[in-house]
Amino acid sequence: MLNAAQLAEFEKNGFLKGDVVLSDAEVERLREELDLIMEGKSVKKPVLNHNMRAEEADSLYKGMKMSVSEKVVQIVNIWMASDTYLQHAGHPVICEEIAQLCKTDTVRVWHDQIQYKPPVTGGPTPWHQDHPLWPVIQPADLVSAWVALDDAVIENGCMWMVPGSHKWGDHQKYMASTPDFMPYHRNPELLPEGAEVKAVPFEIKKGQVGYHHSLTWHGSPNNRSDLKRRAIAVHYMPGHTVYAPTSGHPMVPYVTVNEGDILSGEHFPVVYSIAKAAM
Ligand SMILES: O=C(O)CCC(=O)C(=O)O
Question: Is the distance from the beta carbon of residue 104 to the nearest atom of ligand 1 less than 6 Å?
């Protein structure tokens, strides 16, 4: 459970470090499952299992064949392939804290994602805000729980965050990065007065949870170290999130509700409710 100072810090910055919530043995179990699923050896499959860098390069070069040496393995909805990850998505401490941060009495899973940056060749995850990449749900007040499966430090490509940026609205299309991975705004006069685009590293220990708001500017640079950088992020919806499609998303085929309805259903499981928590 988060205290008042932690809630105030999240409100101010749009991100917050939580406790170490997984034991070494629990992390090891998640790593083993990850290896199995990444290699395509699981019986049930996730929604996506691909190298994000290959696809970015492909769209950049409009289908021209090119060799991609950088790798960021992204697995979306690993919980659909693994009961261990489903159990992780329902982690009682994380879900209770998400409910506090979202000020809600019901928490559902929007989707999860692994991002694995292998040693040396691990690529960057460009600067972005989450909600503009989710043009099928409203409002933009989701909170994600990012749990490190290896110590995530500057050397192996931990996430970086821009404090306060969750209060600036949607600036996704103006976001850019310097060659040394520092973010800047292409049209800074559109930022609210006093807004300062200044990134800080968000180092997270193995088994620790870090929270971020769905409008917080964030990204992670290359992993050029000889350390792996594995992590599981679960993107959680407060009870009032509705289905409001304006364009596509990999989760759309799993939606069974109508436009304007609460995004519920078997692929968006409830992992916390006040009634459940009281039981
Ligand atoms: O794992 C990363 O480096 C990026 C993850 C991310 O963008 C997210 O969890 O929203």
Answer: no
**pTM for this one?**
0.95
Output the CA 74–ligand 1 centroid distance in Å: 10
**Ligand 1 pocket member 129 (CB < 6 A):** no
Pocket lining: 144 vs ligand 1, CB cutoff 6 Å: yes
118 CA to middle of ligand 1, Å? 15
User: Domain with 210 in it: what CATH number?
Assistant: 2.60.120.620
The total of structural domains in the chain comes to 1
Decide: 159 in ligand 1 pocket, CB within 6 A.
yes
Collapsing DSSP to helix, strand or coil, 211 comes out as strand
Look at residues 123, 98, 113, 127 and name the one whose alpha carbon lies nearest to residue 212.
Answer: 98
Quote the CA–CA distance of 236 and 77 in Å, as a whole number: 12
- Write out the two tokens for 53: 């860098």
165-220 pLDDT, tens per residue?
999 999 999 999 999 999 999 999 999 999 999 999 999 999 999 999 999 999 99
Q: Under 8 Å CB-to-CB from 24, ≥6 apart: which residues?
A: 206, 207
- Which tokens belong to 263? 């995004």
How does pLDDT run across 40-50, given as a tens digit for each residue? 999 999 999 99
Structure-token pair, residue 176: 């850019």
Closest by CA to 50, choosing from 35, 38, 41, is: 38
Q: Say what the pLDDT of residue 66 is.
A: 47
Q: How far is CA 112 from the centre of its chain?
A: 7
**Torsion angles phi and psi, residue 149, rounded to 5:** -100, -5
Angle, in degrees to the nearest 10, between helices 92-102 and 4-13: 60
Q: Could you tell me if the CB of 233 is within 6 A of ligand 1? A: yes
- Return the ∠ at Cα 135 (arms to 134 and 140), rounded to 5°: 70
Domain enclosing residue 114, as ranges: 4-278
